[in-house]
Amino acid sequence: MTTTPAYEAVLKGGKYPAKAHAKRVAAYIRSKLPNNGEGAVLPAVIYLESRATKLLEDNDEAEPFRQRRPFYYMTGCPLADSYFMYDMASDKSTLFIPPIDPESVMWSGLPVTAEEAIAQWDVDEVKYVADVNPTLAALGAKISSSSSGKSTVYAIGGQVSDQTTFLGFDDKDFSLLKEAIDECRVVKSAYELALMAKANDVSSAAHRDVLAHVGKATNERELEARFVGHCMAKGLPNQSYHSIVASGRAAATLHYVKNDQPMANKLNLLLDAGSEYNCYAADITRTFPISGKFSPESRAIYDIVLRMQLECIGLLKENVLWDDVHLHAHKVAIDGLLALGILKGDKEAILQNRTSVAFFPHGLGHYLGMDTHDTGGHANYADKDTMFRYLRVRGNLPAGSVITVEPGIYFCEFIIRPYLKDPAHSKFIDEAVLDKYWDVGGVRIEDNLVITKTGSSNLTSAPKDPDEMLAIINSAH
């Protein structure tokens, strides 16, 4: 008996909550105004444009389309060449979609009509794009005549087409809206979490499928095809990002892109891959032995990384300082590498000296949502502290946010060799022991966690228990 996932009921029972998002963004804008926008209604309009259709250079085929995330957040609409406005005074949202073009219908079929759009998406009114400028002008004039304050249109700089005019508005603000949407996107609604749960469910099953076929593959590209094909067959054709399918020492390259190398005589495969569902991402990494049997060195590193991840997940809850969780991951890594003899000396001195960054150079994770590296993280890439420089999220985690937890240990010669030449670091590294581990490449384990008031909820079900992974690989041999 097959059980229907809980997220399916949420997705079937409602629409993408665009109107709630519009209200949240409007509230954020008010909070940034003098006196928090107190008084009468705010005479302002939010204006957004979708991405336009664009042909490939020297070709009559359209470029692959990716909806602008701010537009999708406020509309839930995936259509190109569309527009949106939200009257903050009347709480009215209007979506403008392309009209029916008879010549286009011959090639591409009938587009969405206004009647279909109002039923499908959470907006108050749907018009066609020819009405954008007249509607803006009428709305600007109406607001100005009925308000004692200046009328303002909020838009995103660089995302307003040349033909759009804001006649009738006293002021134009092209900076605050992007900030407002970026910050509001951090905390997800139940509907957004259901979208991400489905993306994770399908992606986790695709990871399991790769495990079951790794023993039959000879090249990295075969496994990428396996993952993408599984997701497409389940109705998720779009990937959240370019998959990383890195065998052997290539797993030490954090954002490896080749995915076309033979896998013979290599220890491990690192698979970092996730599909997206209706613009919402999954981002999952698993590392496993290609042969179905860990070497002693790769199993030792895997166990350290798994312990790093499990302990960090155990620290998660509302308002936890992400910097502290990241720091804890380094402490676990140092303990593990000391036990193996790769590191030597006093663990507190190693931590303070930041020598562990040679083996764990990236941040512990990032916010996840419509983008793989989602908005609102407030990274500080100018941080002089190498342990925190690449941390994509800084500060406290709110309930309802989704964050990846993806610790790793890597044996990248390009990164580690300079540490071996620096006396400040080399005194803490035993090079003779280290030489046994280069073929491990790198190990990373990544799950997607929803932050709750008292802990977290893991959206990712891809196998990561080493014995379970080995059983799947070996049962398919």
UniProtKB/TrEMBL annotation:
Known role: Catalyzes the removal of a penultimate prolyl residue from the N-termini of peptides.
Enzyme Commission code: 3.4.11.9
Record's keyword terms, sorted: Aminopeptidase, Hydrolase, Manganese, Metal-binding, Metalloprotease, Protease
Source species of the chain: Sporothrix epigloea
SMART domains: AMP_N
Family listed: Belongs to the peptidase M24B family.
Protein name (Swiss-Prot/TrEMBL): Xaa-Pro aminopeptidase
Aminopeptidase P N-terminal domain mapped to chain residues: 16-164
Catalytic activity field: Release of any N-terminal amino acid, including proline, that is linked to proline, even from a dipeptide or tripeptide
Source species, domain of life: Eukaryota
Entries under SUPFAM superfamilies matching the protein: Creatinase/aminopeptidase, Creatinase/prolidase N-terminal domain
